[in-house]
């Protein structure tokens, strides 16, 4: 398998590296030293720079003002953003845009894509379900009511006018009820893409405005100190044109979110291992840098192996998503393998870093503390490796190799 990046993908990574160069992770207060969230909103200045560099529209086609790139390019950019703990909804925004572009109706695409690609409209995704452990699509129910216009009930929406729904459902509105927990950037996003389950056991995706009749937000604080939202939907009416009903849309969005999270874990892990190498090469005991001690060298070598495994499994998953290439297993198998390595790998990397930093690792004023908090958040977002191993086993049983 040739994972050589194209010139366009490399250019996107280089642009992200330049945009993120001025971000200082230690300039943000530590979660351990603040009450509540570390900030009221995300890094708007960085968001504007990402928009100016056309990095918010990577996955959009040229007609919508985008670069027409793929999941591999997005993961390269996310990898760079994670190295500086960039406080922006880049993953959720990009994944939601991709879903609207691929499976949304013409009116939703016309109303949102170009504006969101320029950063004027912010999107996020509710992907954690009711508790963070149950499937997200089962946390909200959706039922279609024909013949009425949701805008007459709420006075909100994308402002696309009447017409066919995103999945070809025609007029009317969808009524949503349920709860999604730990929605990232819920207080900042203009729209949240919410998966829901219909009465005939299908998954749909609804674009829910932040300020909308029946939408209630309750503040939650993440491990990283960022502000999340518990999203309660109480008979929320969404125009059919703003609901994606295409088969497999939620599965494709979920795979992209998971793979993007693996890219964040990789970027964070690379930065932490570099911090550890710099520290151990300068910290001396018995007149020698501790990096020269065999016990230290063995531990850092093991973590380097973790990083390389995280990297190769990430690109395999991103390539499968981007290319749609057939394989012995569905693409979800590659995503599961990437999640196994990312979840366990990022935890092992920060634990080793904390150990080798000694007392500095426990200092909440030292940047490693924030990296550890972000790593734990990513690990929890990915879920336990054992669960992904079980899912992979089920796939292997259903699709025997050989």
TrEMBL record:
The Acyl-CoA dehydrogenase/oxidase N-terminal domain, residue ranges: 6-120
The Acyl-CoA dehydrogenase/oxidase C-terminal domain, residue ranges: 260-388
Composition bias type Gly residues, residue spans: 156-173
Residues spanning the signal sequence: none
Molecular function terms, GO-annotated: acyl-CoA dehydrogenase activity; flavin adenine dinucleotide binding
Record keywords: FAD, Flavoprotein, Oxidoreductase
Family: Belongs to the acyl-CoA dehydrogenase family.
PANTHER family, alphabetized: ACYL-COA DEHYDROGENASE, ACYL-COA DEHYDROGENASE FADE28
Name of this protein: Acyl-CoA dehydrogenase
């Amino acid at each position: 398998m040739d994972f050589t990046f194209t010139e366009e993908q490399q250019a996107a990574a280089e642009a992200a590296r330049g945009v993120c160069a001025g971000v200082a992770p230690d300039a943000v207060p530590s979660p351990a030293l603040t009450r509540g969230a570390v900030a009221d909103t995300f890094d708007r200045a960085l968001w504007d720079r990402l928009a100016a560099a056309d990095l918010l529209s990577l996955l959009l086609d040229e007609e919508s003002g985008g670069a027409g790139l793929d999941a591999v390019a997005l993961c390269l950019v996310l990898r760079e953003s994670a190295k500086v703990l960039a406080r922006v909804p880049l993953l959720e925004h990009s994944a939601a845009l991709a879903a609207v572009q691929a499976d949304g109706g013409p009116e939703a695409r016309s109303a949102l894509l170009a504006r969101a690609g320029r950063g004027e409209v912010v999107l996020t995704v509710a992907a954690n379900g009711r508790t963070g452990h149950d499937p997200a699509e089962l946390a909200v129910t959706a039922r279609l009511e024909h013949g009425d216009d949701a805008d007459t009930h709420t006075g909100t929406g994308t402002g696309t006018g009447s017409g066919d729904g995103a999945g070809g459902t025609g007029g009317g509105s969808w009524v949503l009820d349920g709860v999604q927990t730990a929605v990232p950037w819920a207080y900042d996003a203009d729209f949240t893409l919410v998966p829901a389950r219909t009465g005939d056991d299908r998954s749909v995706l609804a674009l829910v405005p932040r300020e909308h009749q029946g939408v209630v937000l309750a503040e939650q604080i993440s491990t990283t100190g960022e502000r999340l939202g518990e999203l309660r939907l109480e008979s929320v009416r969404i125009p059919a044109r703003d609901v994606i009903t295409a088969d497999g849309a939620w599965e494709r969005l979920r795979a992209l979110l998971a793979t993007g999270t693996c890219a964040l874990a990789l970027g964070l892990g690379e930065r932490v291992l570099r911090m550890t190498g710099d520290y151990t090469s300068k910290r001396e005991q018995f007149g020698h840098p501790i990096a020269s001690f065999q016990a230290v060298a063995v531990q850092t070598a093991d973590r380097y192996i973790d990083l390389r495994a995280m990297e190769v499994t990430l690109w395999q998953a991103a390539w499968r998503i981007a290319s749609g290439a057939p394989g012995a297993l569905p693409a979800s198998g590659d995503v599961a393998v990437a999640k196994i390595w990312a979840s366990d790998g990022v935890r092992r990397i920060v634990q080793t870093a904390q150990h080798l930093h000694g007392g500095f690792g426990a200092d909440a004023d030292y940047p490693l503390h924030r990296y550890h908090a972000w790593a734990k958040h990513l690990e929890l977002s990915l879920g336990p490796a054992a669960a992904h191993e079980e899912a992979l086993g089920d796939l292997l049983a259903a699709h025997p190799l050989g």
